[in-house]
Predict the 3D structure of the following.
Amino acid sequence: MNSVGIIGGGITGLTAAFELQKAGIPFTLYEGSERVGGPIRSVREGMYLAECGPNTILETSPAISEMIRELRLETRRIYSDPAAHHRYVARGGRPVALPTSGLSFIRTPLFSTKAKLRLAREPFVRRSDPAAEESVAEFVVRRLGAEFLDYAINPMVGGVYAGDPAQLSVKHAFPKLHVLEQRYGSLIRGQIFGARERRRSGSVSKQNAPKFSFDEGLEVLTIALYRRMQDSICLCHKISSVRRTGPGWTVRANVNGKEVSDQHSAIVLAVAAHDIARLNIEGVNLPNLDSLNDVYYPPVASVVLGFRREDVAHPLDGFGVLVPEAEQMSILGTIFSSSLFAGRAPEGHVTLTSYLGGARAPELADCSEAALLDNTLRDLKLLLGVSGEPTFRHTFVFKKAIPQYNVGFGWFKDVMARIETAALGLLIGGHCRNGISLGDSISAGRELAVRVLEQLRGAETLSNQMNEYAATA
């Protein structure tokens, strides 16, 4: 079999390459920048560790643990501290712990008595037309009521997608919720019966999955993948075109002003939707790629701050605090980084990671570093009782952060499927199509590798059959 060309050095492309390497399939991974990992970026400064992008991986599948074991990273993996078990949501300018049991739900001040009673009606709400497409906001108001939208789903959507529930599609952004309603007619019944199915399959819900990172942050994973495969990874290779040439493909890339090219039997695109739109794919009749530019990637700013422990009044005994839009603050939420994992702050200090911007307020991510710090500090003083000056500061802005699976996103998925149909041997996967979490991206990389292997083996079998036929004709 000839080699595979993988375009994109984020976690999806790296995972696909890793799986192909294990299968003995030669490949070349092309990355346009000087590093792999995409948004996974860990910065160590003295005893402080800042995560610019994602902070954790959810261990939702045995395949994720298998990868860690195969990379020999088990001794470097660290799980979140069990003591940091609370998840907070801001209400009335203060953090309120999300309830974790029936009794705590009854007692919580996060929701009114009216909202709690409204929840009892959920099992009796009719399921929607399976052909209809609702926004997350429409779905939640219909099944749970407006208050649950404002103080449960809105902050969660801000924390996961940096998105707007009035725009996001429940079918595409949260497909398991849509499936639960369609299959069981109720989210509550679906949670009960769905848990039984997950136990049988060995999978774990994202809500209950263990969270982990590594001693030097999530970039430990992408660095390990790079070192394992570096002889087959080409950094600073900006792809100028991909051309169908006979049964295979020619990839042309610009490297320091010079054009280089290579031949491959198959191509994997593990890049953002707008990068696919800009890619010059030749030799095949494709649908209009310009439409993929319409997938919205709002900007998100990460602000990581360190403080003396005595300068933060809140106990920080949890994952973090999410901020509903109704609270009219600047930040989307704050992760209690040093509470989750050891090694994120010096002794007697804490690290807080806050996010601003997203679809809710993209202009807040595009402001100056000074404004980012001022907006973040103002909210942290109100929410967590922060006083004094930060002892550590690190900001990072993703100009195009997270793809928004808005209502109508199925049309973009259809375009990607049509590209694959028209260009046999070219496969698309990653957060532009398969889900935005790190676990989703790892799963997408594994799936891409499986699909490539199936196509290569199918092509090889067909070639052998044709040769046998020619020999006996």
About this structure: The chain has a mean pLDDT of 92. DSSP finds 15 helices and 21 strands in the chain. The radius of gyration is 24 Å.
